Amino acid sequence: MTSLDPAVTLSDQYARFGLSLQLRDVPRTLRTRAKHLILDAVGIALASRSYPYAGVSLAAFSELGSGTSPVIGYGRRLALRDAAMMNGILIHGLDFDDTHSRGVIHSTTSALPAVFALADRDDLSGAELLSAYIVAMEVSTRVASAAKGGFHQAGFHPTGMVGAFGCAVAAARLLHLDEARAAHAQGVVLSMAAGSLEFLEDGAWTKRAHPGFAAAAGITAATLAKHGFTGPRSAYEGRFGLYASHLGKRLDAADQQLATEGLGSAWQIDEVAIKPLPACHFTHAVADAAIALYQEHGFSAQNLDSIDRVIARVPRGTVEVVCEPLEPKRKPVTSYDAQFSVPYIVATALLKGRFTLDDLEPAALADPAVLALATRVDYEIDPDSTFPRHYTGEVIVERSDGSRVAHREAINRGCAERPVSNDDIASKFYANAQRTVSRSAAEQIAQAVLQLDERPARALADTLAGTTESSRTPS
């Protein structure tokens, strides 16, 4: 791992950046993009209200105590940290939220709940909320990028684990800490940051909670530091810091230079990819390739027998997440299983020409044609992949007449080189939000988000928390 000047730690550099950033120094186009990333997250949170995990989580947090912090779509009803955790679950629960490609991390899903809760409680401006959100995004994406995909390979989920550090710096900013205490906050959160990929083995719900844990941990660590609690100085690069303790033998492949490269000038928010499909981002290229083949060749359940075998070519670094173990991936039991299954997603896309939230419903998971085709889907390593810069993918269909057809997606839709426009993000927001709220309520929410830097943060919080007044009852 490349080392930097030991006299100035990464915690010091992030603290200085996080506390000194002025919103006026952030390019206007990037501020607009940041608000659209928030809009995307809010739409997903509203859509989540119709799924069982939302009600289960809210019941659990409500049992732990009440409060006045806002929960998106549910009113003001939880204590501050519990509201942050609940909002993280709502934003991340459908696995439809944004992804920083190089860091392989969903950053908004922890950053927004943390700054949303604090800015509302302390009656700060929307501009302060937006500034802190940008800080959290810029820190967490860089911390994750330096690992060069190693966290996933070691079994850790960067969204929860690394997100905690961005949240700690953003919380330090909102709490008006000095640089020394902001650095301590990062040392404190080192002992709180967590996130295991074990959920991949059986489709458990734990991944949904990771970003909420990160948001609550960041708030807690910064508040402890505010009152004088100290944390280790070398939270990232130390002998038992984040990288050494969580990368192990992969430490030598990491690059600490990436942790601060372009900090304050090369904006990582520009590198954040919007998900056009509700599944693990690693599956998007093969899903789009399969959709293209459906459109070109008319595959369907009616001509299923014409397909002998399907080969999905994926980056080596994604195999353990979306391809293995292969047999369970071919027969997903839960929606979460399905969202991390290349065989299921490719089979669905080939036969239906789509992959939407509806394809995660129980009836879709039991579709006999899709399951039959999924058993014929194998994977190979993509020899030309540019992962993690791009989540590449190719689908090859071997037909019963001996012919083969193929389609390759060298640059996944939604990434920095092939971005989803702000207008497309707005369309995605409305499609998601209107699963649980009326069009007029969705329009009011969109206006509040896109004008948040012109209003008090509490105005946004009131709008998001009060959506139940004009909502349809979730099914």
From TrEMBL:
Chain ranges of the MmgE/PrpD C-terminal domain: 278-453
GO molecular function: lyase activity
Residue span, MmgE/PrpD N-terminal domain: 13-249
Pfam families reported for this sequence: MmgE_PrpD_C, MmgE_PrpD_N
InterPro entries in the record: MmgE/PrpD_sf, MmgE/PrpD_sf_1, MmgE/PrpD_sf_2, MmgE_PrpD, MmgE_PrpD_C, MmgE_PrpD_N
TM helices/strands, residue ranges: none
Family: Belongs to the PrpD family.
Designated name of the protein: 2-methylcitrate dehydratase
Source organism (scientific name): Paraburkholderia monticola
